[in-house]
């Protein structure tokens, strides 16, 4: 933020930002607040909430257990605030502002969206997608990268929509994405190497089952944010219990239990999408209704037509049974079928859902996943 805004924050919360004057060379002292002005109001509210929470806990500003912010930065398009002494009491506050920042333009504070730019992942409004200070070129929503590089399917940009033709290139991509996924309430993750994977032999879509979260977090960037959190292995506030735990199991079932492939390697190679397009609940014990299974088919077909996977790894037997019940298919063996989707035949198979409570057997499911996806020998790829 600008020096003026930074001093306003430091003056309003001197004890919270006291590390800037301390003996240790922490980031807040050496680099100041490392994010754009658009997030100033988020930081001001976050600071206020931290102070209120500390007061409620009976902390005093004169004591060393008063929270001390040691770093504020933008990472993967989100606002990250780190405390000198991590304390679980404050984690929900920091997390709620990280999530708010993913919907707030870092430049101007207007509603924004997270996407990939030439300088990494940023969050910007439609006006600042091309002029974001960290962006030299146009911001490209991650899910568009494949569509723009796909020679076989000029699917999106050829749809001649009168509004699209009148727009700049950057805006066109975003419009096209909104049109193609207009029936999709939670957008797929599409890795930057998805069209030319490094560790797999085919364009691979991993099909999860349901979206589970708090109602206020349910939105089109839900999967995107979960994946970015899994990739950000250095983060102190990474949630290793939910999605990251599940992601580790998928990575291991495809590449082997002792694989050295990182979350970043893995996610950049694949696309990921949850089939059920409704908020099923907060916990994976809650089950989708039959109506939800049926109504989610058009969105699934739209995603498959847009990204043209060559392989689909389906997670969960219920998910698989539903697909076989609704799509034309040719069975190949007990776990594999050729599915007809949008005029294309796609070799697909299922494994038990790695989060299923019955205990997940690598011995049983790893051969199924490997047979379908044919991962490359990691040592060969890296040498
Ligand atoms: Zn903006």
Textual characterization of the structure:
This protein has helices at 3-12, 27-30, 40-56, 91-101, 142-149, 162-165, 169-180, 222-231, 243-255, 263-269, 290-295, 297-307, 317-326, 362-373, 378-382; strands spanning 69-75, 78-83, 113-117, 120-124, 189-190, 204-208, 211-212, 270-274, 279-281, 311-315, 329-333, 336-341, 344-351. It is of the alpha/beta class. Strands 5-8-6-10-13-12-11 form a 7-stranded mixed beta sheet, sandwiched between helices. A hairpin with a 2-residue loop joins strand 11 and strand 12. Helix 3 packs antiparallel against helix 4 and helix 9 (243-255) packs across helix 14. It is elongated. The model is unreliable at 134-176 (pLDDT under 50). Zinc ion binds at residues 105, 107-108, 110, 124-125, 127-128.
Summarize the structure.
By secondary structure, the chain is an alpha/beta fold. Helices cover 37% and strands 17% of the residues.
Radius of gyration: 22 Å
Bound molecules: zinc ion
User: SSE order in H/E notation?
Assistant: HHHEEHEEHHHEEEHHHEEHHEHEEEHH
**How many helical elements?**
15
In the predicted model, the low-confidence regions spanning at least 5 consecutive residues are 134-176
Q: What can be said about the biggest beta sheet?
A: 7 strands, mixed
For the residues shown, what is the average pLDDT? 80
């Amino acid at each position: 933020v600008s020096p003026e805004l930074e001093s306003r924050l430091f003056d309003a919360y001197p004890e919270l930002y006291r590390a800037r004057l301390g003996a240790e060379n922490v980031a807040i002292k050496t680099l100041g607040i490392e994010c754009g002005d658009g997030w100033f109001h988020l930081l001001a509210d976050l600071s206020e909430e931290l102070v209120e929470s500390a007061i409620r806990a009976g902390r005093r500003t004169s004591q060393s257990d008063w929270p001390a912010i040691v770093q504020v930065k933008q990472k993967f398009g989100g606002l990250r605030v780190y405390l000198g002494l991590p304390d679980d009491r404050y984690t929900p506050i920091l997390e709620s502002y990280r999530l708010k920042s993913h919907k707030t333009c870092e430049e101007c504070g207007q509603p924004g969206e997270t996407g990939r730019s030439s300088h990494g992942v940023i969050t910007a409004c439609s006006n600042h997608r091309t002029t974001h200070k960290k962006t030299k070129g146009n911001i490209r929503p991650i899910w568009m990268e494949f569509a723009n590089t796909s020679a076989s399917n000029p699917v999106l940009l050829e749809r001649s929509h009168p509004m699209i033709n009148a727009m700049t290139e950057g805006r066109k991509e975003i419009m096209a994405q909104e049109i193609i996924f207009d029936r999709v309430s939670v957008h797929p993750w599409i890795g930057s190497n998805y069209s030319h994977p490094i560790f797999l032999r085919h364009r691979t879509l991993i099909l999860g089952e349901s979206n589970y979260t708090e109602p206020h977090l349910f939105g089109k960037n839900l999967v995107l944010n979960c994946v970015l959190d899994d990739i950000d292995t250095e983060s102190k506030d990474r949630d290793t219990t939910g999605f990251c735990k599940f992601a580790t199991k998928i990575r291991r079932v495809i590449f082997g239990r002792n694989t050295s492939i990182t979350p970043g390697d893995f996610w950049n190679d694949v696309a990921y999408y949850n089939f059920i397009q409704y908020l099923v609940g907060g916990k994976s014990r809650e089950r989708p209704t039959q109506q939800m299974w049926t109504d989610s088919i058009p969105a699934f077909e739209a995603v498959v037509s847009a990204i043209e996977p060559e392989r689909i790894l389906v997670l969960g037997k219920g998910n698989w049974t539903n697909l076989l019940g609704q799509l034309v298919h040719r069975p190949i063996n007990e776990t594999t079928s050729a599915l007809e989707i949008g005029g294309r035949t796609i070799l697909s198979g299922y494994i038990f859902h790695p989060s299923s409570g019955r205990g997940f057997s690598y011995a049983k499911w790893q051969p199924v996943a490997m047979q379908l996806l044919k991962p490359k020998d990691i040592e060969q790829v890296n040498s």
